[in-house]
Q: What sequence folds into this?
């Protein structure tokens, strides 16, 4: 968050007529920094345009392991008395964070009657490029494969370091130095699920060929652990039954005025094989689906962006949607204004 936005927001808080709590939830391999200045800018606009004060929280979590465990941890965080949440709460999730937000609200709903009444109510879930229907096949297979190849090529030194570390001594490897290096190697794929898991798997296979003896087994085991843990967290990306069930649940609860929901997604116009195409990072619902109205597209023309080399495709647009200096002021403004309009 920018200090200017927060300072201005603080100065105007006295004019607010109501207060809301915003909880920002990052996506796969993200952090509180993933939203950049967006929380502060949104907070400022709520005050200046809606006379509404906003408390801002950022929830950070491990993007690996069992999804149900991640949901349980978020529920525990929200309901922890030390957090002091009360009144209306809006959850805002980027990418996989959007799915976590929805599943957490579902869990809170299911647990009603088994706990003391909560002092807060989740009135809205706003998602940003969240793959409720999975990542779009073109993003995974075409753009993603290209980025994975480039990523692996640019990080051969990291693989070399992995092997060098493994070759030092088997004792060092068993103490965890290889495991630590393997974990960092998964960050090659921060553009999305396939690259992250794929790069780690490639490193494991490479190590298994090049490192002799039991040390190779340690390397393979360590990286395989990374792959399996991240694959478990990313399970919702390839579970069609759960996807449909989740969206129908959202639609039903929105119709019953339990809470409001919207998923903003970026539509990227880009050059493809000499022609212009429009691509999305997420798979979007067919128009005939009842829940199709829960999704709102935001146009981004990469062919007109002066920083095209930094944001040339749907994956880059997904990763940089909160960075106006890269995706463009106009797109960022559309995301900000659209978010405000839903509140």
A:
């Amino acid at each position: 968050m920018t200090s200017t936005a927060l300072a201005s927001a603080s100065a105007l808080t006295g004019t607010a007529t109501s207060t809301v709590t915003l909880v920002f939830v990052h996506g796969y391999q993200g952090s509180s920094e993933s939203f950049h200045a967006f929380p502060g800018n949104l907070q400022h606009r709520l005050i200046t345009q809606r006379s509404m004060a906003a408390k801002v929280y950022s929830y950070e979590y491990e993007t690996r392991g069992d999804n149900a465990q991640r949901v349980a941890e978020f529920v525990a965080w929200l309901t922890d008395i030390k957090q002091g949440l009360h009144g209306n709460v809006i959850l805002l999730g980027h990418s996989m964070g959007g799915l976590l937000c929805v599943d957490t609200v579902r869990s809170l709903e299911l647990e009603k009657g088994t706990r003391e009444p909560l002092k807060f109510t989740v009135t809205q879930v706003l998602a940003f490029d969240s793959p409720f229907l999975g990542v779009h096949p073109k993003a995974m297979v075409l753009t993603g494969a290209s980025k994975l190849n480039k990523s692996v090529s640019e990080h051969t030194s990291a693989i070399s370091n992995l092997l060098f570390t493994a070759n030092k001594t088997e004792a060092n490897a068993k103490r965890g130095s290889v495991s630590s290096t393997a974990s960092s190697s998964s960050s090659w794929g921060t553009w999305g699920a396939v690259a992250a898991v794929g790069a780690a798997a490639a490193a494991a296979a490479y190590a298994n060929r090049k490192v002799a003896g039991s040390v190779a087994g340690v390397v393979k085991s360590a990286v395989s652990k990374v792959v399996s843990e991240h694959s478990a967290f990313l399970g919702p990306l390839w579970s069609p039954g759960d996807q449909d069930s989740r969206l129908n649940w959202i639609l039903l609860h929105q119709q019953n005025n339990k809470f409001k929901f919207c998923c903003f997604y970026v539509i990227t116009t880009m050059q493809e094989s000499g022609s212009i195409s429009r691509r999305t990072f997420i798979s979007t619902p067919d128009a005939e689906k009842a829940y199709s109205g829960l999704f709102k597209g935001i146009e981004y023309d990469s062919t007109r962006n002066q920083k095209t080399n930094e944001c040339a495709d749907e994956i880059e647009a997904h990763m940089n949607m909160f960075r106006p200096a890269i995706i463009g002021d106009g797109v960022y403004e559309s995301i900000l204004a659209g978010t405000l309009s839903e509140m």
User: Anything to note?
Assistant: The chain is about 50% helix and 15% strand. The longest strand covers residues 260-272.
